[in-house]
Amino acid sequence: QFLKQLGIHPDWQFVDVYGMEPELLSMVPRPVCAVLLLFPITEKYETFRTEEEERIKAKGQDVKSSVYFMKQTINNACGTIGLIHAIANNRDKMNFETNSSLKKFLEDSLSMTPEERAKYLETYEAIRVTHESSAHEGQTEAPSIDEKVDLHFIALVNVGGHLYELDGRKPFPINHGETSDDSFLEDAIQVCKKFMERDPEELRFNAIALSAA
């Protein structure tokens, strides 16, 4: 529904990933061009995030200039940021309506820095209104913009044969190594499993895949 309201033709849709075993992954329609992971922000995760950032800053990493990445400055908007990351890095595969608000946002923001994109989203009424109306259509009441929420969305995408984790709370994309169109879902799920292994007592993990309809 959210994609439709943003002016994207329904030839791609988000589907639930019911489990991470091969037989359950085989139920996900292919091809898959992005995976969104919902996970809890815990003390263990925050410790890991700080260490990961310091390690990458010290060692460096290869991030292609074609990766579209934006920071998150709006509270409780990680789902919208994740969706923008998923679509923006697959925009060549998407069919947009001519008056698509998301298409205009992406075209306007392509030359911006990750921080400028975040600022632009703050003032971009069309996406904010769509986000709010979609949130109210869900089965559970959406948290208010100021409420503290300890669940967070990130996007996993394939750009130029590399699997990137895009998280607006982080200073940069995370390169998780090589992938391909054929192996992308399995490779993305391996990254999701690492999140789960860092917090073995936690059960609040959920993945959805952007699949061809």
TrEMBL record:
* Subcellular location, record wording: Cytoplasm
Q: Which PROSITE patterns match?
A: UCH_1, UCH_DOMAIN
The entry's active site is C78 (nucleophile), H152 (proton donor)
The UCH catalytic domain extends over 1-212
Kindly state one GO CC term assigned in the UniProt record: cytoplasm
Q: Which InterPro entries match?
A: Papain-like_cys_pep_sf, Peptidase_C12_UCH, Peptidase_C12_UCH_sf, UCH_AS
Q: Any idea which UniProt keywords this protein has?
A: Cytoplasm, Hydrolase, Phosphoprotein, Protease, Thiol protease, Ubl conjugation pathway
Write down the EC number.
3.4.19.12
Please state what class of enzyme this protein is: hydrolase
Record-level GO BP terms? protein deubiquitination; ubiquitin-dependent protein catabolic process
Q: How does it assemble?
A: Preferentially binds diubiquitin; the interaction does not hydrolyze diubiquitin but, in vitro, inhibits the hydrolyzing activity on other substrates.
What PANTHER family does the annotation carry? Answer: UBIQUITIN CARBOXYL-TERMINAL HYDROLASE, UBIQUITIN CARBOXYL-TERMINAL HYDROLASE ISOZYME L3
The entry assigns this protein to a family as follows: Belongs to the peptidase C12 family.
Q: What is this protein called?
A: Ubiquitin carboxyl-terminal hydrolase
